[in-house]
Structures are given as structure tokens and as C-alpha cells.
Design goal:
The complex is a heterotrimer. Helices cover 77% and strands 0% of the residues of chain A. Chain A has 5 helices and no strands. In chain A, α2 packs across α3 and α3 crosses α4. Chain A starts with a helix and ends with a helix. Chain B has 5 helices and 2 strands. Chain B is mainly alpha-helical. Helices cover 75% and strands 3% of the residues of chain B. The radius of gyration of chain B is 19 Å and the shape is elongated. Chain B has a two-stranded antiparallel ribbon. Chain C has 4 helices and no strands. In chain C, α1 runs antiparallel to α2 and α2 runs antiparallel to α3. The longest helix of chain C is centred in the last third of the chain and has 31 residues. Classes of the chains: A mainly alpha, B mainly alpha, C mainly alpha. Chains in contact: A-B, A-C, B-C. At the A-C interface, α1, α2, α3 and α4 of A face α1 and α3 of C.
Chain lengths: 96, 140, 111
């Protein structure tokens, strides 16, 4: 019981140490390029017709990405229905 | 005895709450371009309402009204409608999935196209979540 | 200061994936890591003293709407990932009748 706890705490300490080494050089005040965001905020309502700018981005300017994500959801649902069928279980029972 | 008492309380409370959850989901989808909300958010709330109904009454009773064939048909027809709405933009001479109803009605820009896309995506996401729950919960 | 809390959540999630031996706990760790990445991106687009990006009458300063729109897709992909991982672990349970990853390794080597 205590052997498992010691192993988990050792892994936790190693991961925290790696985290500190990895992110020690993080400097959050870099200058960002905001030209695209300012264009969306300034002219989004006129060109798309929606007051909510987030909706006008993912359904107006970048609607193609939403189509790709919808296809990803369709493929996921089809694969889950295919994986968890019940006829397979019936066949395994019959073979024995 | 105590187990039956617990499921009675859960069942009665959930059955009173489910119509309001579905109404809230449709509100989030319809007002997606006016206030915080949108397609995916409203769709997931719709799916969660149906899952609550399943948890309170049992899956076999819920499948009589929300059967698996109907929800699969809903999902497939919604994605076909999305692609057809995009081709409407191509037919009218502009880009794919562009806004064809853009104009001004008394100085208010019309947002009909975004509302249609919102509705399609919301129903599709809700149907997907319900189908995933049906497949995962009927295992043994 | 706020970014370091996000990194803490990220490393707790990574510890959950690597250090635990139950399959369901590994999947929970994956979900926690996903949430940490989404929080980090939304935190980058924040401006001090601004409101939500809904252009009603007389709204001047808004936060950055672009990371929020990109993270909507990321959340949906996270749902797909968790659902597929749960379905695969269910099939593994049907075959090996255990959820412990070290015992599954031993049983799979013997086949």
C-alpha cells in the first residue's frame, strides 16, 4: 500500500520539476499582433449582421472550419455506434 | 425500500424540470446572434435534457418517444442541410457558405442566414450527444 | 501570475495520465489537460477593464473575440476524444474483465 503511494508521489515530484524547468523562461508581455481581431471587432456587425462577434467569426468569416468540425462529430458518433454493437456479443456467445 | 424512495424523488423532480431545460436550450440556439450563446451550446443543453429524462424513467421507456431511428435520421438530414445551404451561396454567384440574405431592413442588418446555420448545428450536436449516450449506456 | 495556475492544472492532468494505473483515471487526466489548454488560450485574449464582445449601443472596449471562437472547436474535439476513449476502454473490459493496465499488459503478452 505504501509502496504504491511512494511511487505516485515520486512521479508527481518529477513532473513538477520538469514543469518548472520547462516554463521558467515564460515571459507573458510579448507584443501580440492584433490586426485581424481589430478588423473583426470594427466591421463584424456590418458585414455579417450579427451583434455577437464570436458568432459572426465562427459562422460568418470562418464557417468552413465549422463544417469540418461537424464532419468530425459525425465520424465520431458513427464509429462509437459501430464499436459498441450488440450482435457481436451474441456471436461470441454462440461460438462457445 | 429506501432505494425505491430515492428513485421516486429523482424521477418526480426530473420530470418537472425537463420541459424548462429543453426550452432553455432552444432559447440559447435562437438568440445566438444577440446575446451569449450559439449553436453548439444550445445543442448540448438539449442533449443533456433528454439524458436527464432517460435517467429518471429508464432508457426503454424513453426510446418509445425518442427512438434511435428518428434521431439518426435527424442527424443525417441536418448535415445534408448544412452542405446544401453552402451550395446556395455558390449558385447565386458568390463564395461557398456566404451570407445571401445580407441587406438592411430599416437600418438593422439582417442575420437570417446565421440563425439558420445555428439551428442546424444545434440540432446536430444534440442528436450526436443523445446517440453517444444510447450506445454507451446499453452495454453490459 | 494567472498563467502559472493554468500550468499547474496542466501538470496535474499529465500526472493523472502517467502516474495512475486505472483506465478511467487516465481518461479523467486527459480531460483535465484539455481544460487547461483551453483556459490558457482564453486567458491570453483578455484585456483589463473590458466587457464581453457583444456590440450593443455604446460599448467601446471589448476583449479579444478570436481565441474564444477557436476554442469552441477545441471543446467539441475534446468531447469526441473522451467519448472514443471511453468506448475503447469498454471494449477492453469486455475482453479482459479488468481495468488495470498492468494486468492487461500481462494478459496481452500471454496470447
Amino acid at each position: 500500500m505504501s509502496k504504491k503511494w511512494a511511487k505516485e508521489i515520486l512521479i508527481l515530484l518529477i513532473i513538477m520539476l520538469l514543469g518548472i524547468i520547462f516554463f521558467s523562461g515564460f515571459y507573458p508581455h510579448l507584443p501580440l499582433n492584433l490586426a485581424v481581431s481589430e478588423h473583426y471587432v470594427a466591421r463584424g456587425e456590418r458585414e455579417t449582421g450579427a451583434i455577437n462577434i464570436v458568432s459572426s467569426i465562427y459562422l460568418g468569416y470562418r464557417a468552413f472550419d465549422t463544417l469540418g468540425e461537424t464532419i468530425a462529430l459525425l465520424v465520431t458518433v458513427s464509429s462509437i455506434v459501430f464499436l459498441l454493437e450488440k450482435k457481436e456479443e451474441r456471436n461470441i456467445g454462440k461460438r462457445r | 425500500m429506501e432505494k425505491e424512495d430515492k428513485s421516486e424523488i429523482v424521477g418526480i423532480t426530473s420530470r418537472k424540470l425537463v420541459p424548462y431545460i429543453l426550452l432553455f436550450g432552444f432559447y440559447l440556439i435562437s438568440y445566438g446572434h444577440f446575446s451569449p450563446g450559439g449553436g453548439f451550446q444550445g445543442g448540448v443543453v438539449l442533449g443533456a435534457g433528454i439524458i436527464l429524462l432517460c435517467l429518471s424513467r429508464g432508457i426503454s421507456l424513453t426510446e418509445i418517444s425518442f427512438s434511435r431511428q428518428k434521431i439518426t435520421l435527424l442527424e443525417i438530414s441536418m448535415i445534408t442541410t448544412f452542405i446544401l445551404l453552402g451550395i446556395v451561396g455558390l449558385v447565386m454567384g458568390k463564395n461557398f457558405l456566404s451570407n445571401v440574405f445580407l441587406g438592411k431592413v430599416e437600418e438593422v442588418p439582417t442575420a437570417g442566414f446565421i440563425f439558420l446555420l445555428d439551428l442546424v448545428i444545434g440540432l446536430k450536436a444534440g442528436a450526436g450527444i443523445i446517440l453517444i449516450f444510447y450506445s454507451l449506456a446499453k452495454m453490459r | 501570475m494567472e498563467f502559472y495556475l493554468t500550468f499547474l492544472i496542466l501538470f496535474i492532468g499529465i500526472w493523472g495520465i502517467v502516474g495512475k494505473e486505472n483506465l478511467i483515471k487516465k481518461i479523467i487526466g486527459l480531460n483535465i489537460t484539455n481544460s487547461a489548454v483551453i483556459l490558457f488560450f482564453i486567458l491570453i485574449g483578455h484585456r483589463r477593464g473590458s466587457t464581453a464582445p457583444i456590440m450593443e449601443k455604446g460599448v467601446k472596449n471589448v476583449v479579444d473575440p478570436l481565441p474564444q471562437a477557436l476554442m469552441l472547436t477545441t471543446i467539441v474535439i475534446g468531447i469526441c476524444l473522451t467519448a472514443l476513449a471511453l468506448a475503447l476502454s469498454l471494449k477492453m473490459y469486455r475482453k479482459y474483465h479488468t481495468l488495470d493496465i498492468s494486468q492487461i499488459e500481462k494478459l496481452a503478452k500471454d496470447e
